[in-house]
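During data preparation, we tokenized the protein backbone, and the record follows.
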Amino acid sequence: MFKDSADFRRIASGMLLIVAPLLQAIAVIIDPGTWGDDREAVSFGDNPALAQAQSALYHWAYLLMALVAIALLHVMRRRMVVFGHVVGSLTALGYINLSGMLMIDPVEWWLGQRNTPEQSAKILDEMLNLPGVVFAFQMPWLFFAILGMPVLLVGVWRAGFTHWWVPLVVAVGYGTSLVVPYGPASVVLWGACAVAIGSLGVRVLRMSRTEWVAYYPTDAPGRTTPDSYANTTA
């Protein structure tokens, strides 16, 4: 596998599609705020160990989801090419910025240990509402991740790689999570998204090398495939 670039990319892409959304689903399950006080300054103090674990899981889930967005571009090499590259790039940027926002978790925990929940919320709001924070880390970048993935999966569906229910489930899951309070409902919503996106990973892992390589363009001059590259360097 490690000597063959095509197989390595196929297996790595398949594993990313399964692991990244699964980490997010696990994070929401172990998050003290899911089952307790929705104010993180309080729930983080109730169980600091789980709070730090969920924060780390979210961080890596979002970083890997950025790679998932890039990996999905492979199955859009023949159809929806421009759409995929534009939406995929914006989605990856969104997840990277979303990951960066996880650094606020230890700050909120620290504030909660030294202030009342109301004071902690006031201080945190003042910090997060700074123009540099809003426009560099939050707006509109965070929505590129939450809304970008369902839109990107629509392109994957239109490219003929998946069924219509996959982008629909992800759109309902992520979209609904924007309007319902963070809590037990989030477990169901993000769990459904993990199943939908993970199904793509299972399909990728079940593909043969030939099926994977078939997505590389071969009729455009100047473009190379793993096989053609190997032949020129043999």
Q: What stands out?
A: The CA atoms of residues 70 and 89 lie 7 Å apart.
